[in-house]
Records
---
Amino acid sequence: MADAAVALLAIAATLAVYAAARAVQRRRKSVWLHPVLVSIVVLIAALALLDIDYATYDRGGRVLTFFLGPAVVALGLPLYRQMEEIGRRGKAVLLSLLAGAAVGTLSATLAAALLGASDQVVRSLAPRAVTTPIAIGIAERVGGLPALSAAVAIFTGILGAVIGPPLLRAIGVRSRTAFGLSLGAAAHGVGTARAAEEGEVEAASSGLAIGLMGVFTAVLAPLGLALLAWLGLLG
């Protein structure tokens, strides 16, 4: 009963903090008050102040984590509705996301290897550019730390969702499809939630980017790590 109470409290606290963070963002209209970012900061601070370890909190947190998978699958609905629109740009979409997956994998792992990071850390950074559930699976496959991969994926997603939209507008991106693809490829789940605020085309494109980035990265991550090993940068 005690474990169930702790789990319910963790779920309630997380949802309450997120709801409050969304309300604050709507009122203040600041990109730096992204609900996910604010929620993470507030919850970490609360756990530290109350001296609650993560394992205790995760009794409820894992229930919320479970819904990450179904949430990614649910992105297929807006994609289905916009399939004709996106299909007209099929070749450009595939090539751009393939390039994005290659750059996302090599940029993080190569930089970490050159800076002297341990092999396990380098391997954990290989799935940096994919959404959290996929990143965890890839990390387990290539010998990385799933927890570190998840943390990096979440941080990447938050950063992309915060600076992505204003940056894309500043450099003149006007295509709704390109806008969504960029957010999905660079900021995965969090970026897709942000893209959905722009419209259904953006949401569908972003959802497509999440799926294809996951497929491409699952193939390219082991190849990229093998290349680093061949170059003598990875054991």
---
Amino acid sequence: MKSNVSLDGVLPVDKASGMTSHDVVAIVRRAFSTKKVGHCGTLDPLATGLLLLTMGRGTKIQDLLMSEDKEYTGTLRLGETTDSQDADGKIIETHPVTDFSKEQIEQAFQKFTGDFYQIPPMISAIKKNGIPLYKLARQGKSIEREPRLVHVYAFEVKDIRLPEIDFRVVCSKGFYVRTYTHDIGQVLGCGAHLSSLRRTKSGKFSVEGAVTVEQLRTVPAESLSEHILSLPAVSKLRGA
């Protein structure tokens, strides 16, 4: 790739379902013929939406961008709990689903607002003695996890089609939406898991206008570079 194209900055990508965040990093590295690419906040394979890729000197602000609040839209399914707390996992419990009212459902969501503690799922990238928990889970092991202080700034119950509920949540970094839906299912007494998830915002960045994975695979690098936000542009967007 010609050096007249600046690769220092942030590339907002709309991640497709069925791929890891590292898969997206690999695609971007190939698209721009560069190795200096990182991502800000892992999205599970099930999830779609905004994944911020830092490039070149932009990798120096990766931790800063990862620390910002996130917004998600998603769907939870009542009556089934899974070992991963999402639809990619194995169903471990099933329960009948009561004909809950909107008020009952919103009261369950309301229990998880402001500051509270979450226990991260075993199937996660959190490390114990240098080993990711998901690797231990694959070995059939379950270890005690430290509760994490998280924050929910806002939520919205968007649609109820029992046993499914569509919702929106604005939350702090380190928040597990999978665990959020699991815990809401526990409050309602019938269990639940996350059946779909889309990250719509991260800090001041929005998924609207983000480059798609298909574009990364097919559009020439010169054209793709127009989607890279320069470091001064990022600073201005964040109000820094």
---
Amino acid sequence: MQTNAYLAWEEPESAVLIDPGDEAHKLLPWIESTGVKPVAAVLTHAHFDHLGALNEVVAAYDLNVYLHPEALPVYQRAANSAARWGFKIPQPSTEPLHMLPEGELKLGPGFKVLHLPGHCPGHLGLYNAKAGVIFSGDVLFSGGVGRWDIPSANREVLAASIRKLFELPLETVVHPGHGPATTLQNELQNNIYVQSWLTSS
């Protein structure tokens, strides 16, 4: 599914792993090659393509797992959801989870946690003002936005999340769940969904 996984840190001994999507046999050597130690896995949302390698990375690094409380039902049926799309992943076995509502996450480099539903219940964005970056999951992509034609998605709610996202500085760099990085400024200028939803009520 070509999902992006990210490592974010200020101190190498306390990194945060964001969205360990799949292919643990590639993901674990990549983490090792960075020389940092992850202490937590944070899920921007609980769609199966963002957590397929979760069991393996949790076992390898004894990670705590964080997600929004509204994402828990999606998390609990991840393997079944994958099967409906013709994919096979192990059902995440990590319990108990740490519920991460909107607010502050004082792990890794530290994040302002934004609740950005619409593509998936309990979807989060992770914003670091010091670095000027946000990990947007599947809310915003270069040239696109998250799908709203899938179960539990909602176009109007997603549009509201896009408007909330654009309250951040336009120079903010966006690291999405799929595809290349972009900026809010670039999406404002070139993304037809953003342009439409920012001018509608």
---
Amino acid sequence: MNATANLSESFFATLSTGLAPHLFSTGEQGSAARPVPSVAPWAAAGSRGVPAEGVALPFAIADETAGDVLAREALLDRAMGPGRKRKSSEKLRRGRLPSEGLAFVARDPEGTVVGTVRLWDVTLGDGGARALLLGPLAVDPSIKSAGIGSALMRHAIGEAARLGHGAVLLVGDAPYYARFGFSAGKTGALAMPGPFERHRFLALELAAGALDGASGVLKPAGRPQRAQAMARAA
């Protein structure tokens, strides 16, 4: 094994453990334990260049830290544009903190944030059960198709299941998220707090029956940002 291979192999972090087999389509579960197992040097495409065909770029998934906030916001602006804050899902996130232990970033070998995903606590209607809302999921536009989005999704789902959450919802493209087990099969009686496209409102049960009988408009249930700020100042 050459020096490049040793460098790449030492860089990859374990994605997650104990993932339920039903969360992945055939052939995906085995790759869930390691993000993009490649020995190709990052320099082959350039840290900000579009990867050449067949070249996988190394990255690692990590918990988001306070120092990542500015880089994450800049990445979201590049990937999603200024209109991202007008989406219905933003009403469920505004003024709230992500669900505890469920905010992740992808970093390149230089430590730069190249991907992000967060999950948020919500209530399914008035007095309904708790669930998670996933989003936004974003990857640096210059290095899409490197497997970063898929790795972030698998890691986020695995951690949500490990922490005992029953279901994850999101608004997104059904063909993409179907590979992770999401569908509109159990969201028919649920709604977002604002305009949304019904066919893009998807859910994944982490515990069988978690969404049985769920109905109503999703409501924010996460920890307020102000409470955390006050606690730090105390």
